C-alpha cells in the first residue's frame, strides 16, 4: 500500500468485499464496472476494445474482484491516512483566522477528499456521489447489481468516516461556514 497524495482526477472509493471495509484512491475510470457497456456507449465494438489499462478486466464484479484488488494494492489507502489529510487541511481552532477566499480554497481541497463511490461487492450495490453527468458510474453497473440512491456518508461505517475530526464532520462544518459567508450556495 502506497499512500500518495490525493489527486483531483482520482476517486476515493469505499469498498465492502468479503465483509471487509477498505478505501482506494485511483483513476476514477477504473471504477466504471462494466467496460463493455462503456465501450458501446462510446461507439466502440466491445470485442475489439483494449482493456489492458484495467488489467484486462471487462466487467468488474464478484467474479473478477479478487484479481482486480490484487492489481489495485498500490491504490489502497488507510482510513488513518485519509483522516490525517483532512485534519491537516481543516483546523477547527484556527478557522476564523482564514479570509473568505482562503476558506473557499480550503473547501476545494476538502472536496478532493470526499468519497466518490461506495462499491458493495457483498450485496452487489453501488452508491455514487458523482454529480458529473459525463461520469455516471450507475450507468455501468454489471447485470444483477443495483445503484442505491442513498446518502453515501451515512453508509460508511463510523470507524471509517475519516472526515470526522474530534467528533465533528469537517466537510459539513466547513461548507456551512463558507455558505454562511455567501461564497457558495
Description:
With 185 residues, the chain is an alpha/beta fold. It has one domain (10-180). Helix content is 26%, strand content 18%. It has 5 helices and 8 strands. It has helices at residues 35-41, 65-71, 79-89, 100-111, 170-180; strands at residues 10-17, 20-27, 76-77, 115-120, 125-128, 146-147, 164-165, 168-169. Strands 3-2-1-4-5-6 form a 6-stranded mixed β-sheet. A hairpin with a 2-residue loop joins strand 7 (164-165) and strand 8 (168-169). It is globular. 21% of the residues are buried.
Strand and helix layout:
Elements: E1 10-17, E2 20-27, H1 35-41, H2 65-71, E3 76-77, H3 79-89, H4 100-111, E4 115-120, E5 125-128, E6 146-147, E7 164-165, E8 168-169, H5 170-180
Parallel strand pairs: 1-4, 5-6
Antiparallel strand pairs: 1-2, 2-3, 4-5, 7-8
Treating each run of at least 4 consecutive H or I residues as one helix, how many helices?
A: 5
User: Topology as H/E string?
Assistant: EEHHEHHEEEEEH
User: What is the CA-atom radius of gyration, in angstroms?
Assistant: 18 Å
Protein structure class: alpha/beta
What keyword list fits this structure?
6-stranded mixed beta sheet, globular, alpha/beta, single chain, two-stranded antiparallel sheet
Question: Can I get a quick summary?
Answer:
The chain has 185 residues and is of the alpha/beta class. It has helices at residues 35-41, 65-71, 79-89, 100-111, 170-180; strands at 10-17, 20-27, 76-77, 115-120, 125-128, 146-147, 164-165, 168-169. It has one domain (10-180).
Amino acid at each position: 500500500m502506497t499512500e500518495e497524495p490525493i489527486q483531483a482526477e482520482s476517486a476515493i472509493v469505499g469498498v465492502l468485499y468479503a465483509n471487509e471495509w477498505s478505501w482506494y484512491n485511483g483513476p476514477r475510470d477504473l471504477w466504471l464496472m462494466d467496460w463493455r457497456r462503456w465501450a458501446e456507449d462510446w461507439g466502440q465494438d466491445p470485442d475489439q476494445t483494449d482493456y489492458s489499462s484495467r488489467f484486462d478486466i471487462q466487467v468488474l464484479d464478484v467474479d473478477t474482484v479478487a484479481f482486480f484488488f490484487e492489481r489495485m494494492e498500490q491504490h489502497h489507502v488507510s482510513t488513518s491516512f485519509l483522516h490525517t489529510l483532512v485534519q491537516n487541511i481543516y483546523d477547527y481552532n484556527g478557522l476564523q483566522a482564514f479570509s473568505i477566499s482562503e476558506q473557499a480554497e480550503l473547501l476545494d481541497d476538502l472536496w478532493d477528499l470526499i468519497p466518490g463511490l461506495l462499491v458493495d461487492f457483498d450485496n452487489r450495490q453501488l452508491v455514487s456521489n458523482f454529480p458529473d453527468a459525463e461520469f455516471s458510474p450507475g450507468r455501468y453497473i454489471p447485470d444483477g447489481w443495483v445503484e442505491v440512491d442513498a446518502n453515501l456518508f451515512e453508509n460508511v461505517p463510523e470507524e471509517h468516516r475519516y472526515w470526522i475530526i474530534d467528533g465533528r464532520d469537517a466537510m459539513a462544518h466547513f461548507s456551512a461556514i463558507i455558505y454562511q459567508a455567501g461564497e457558495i450556495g
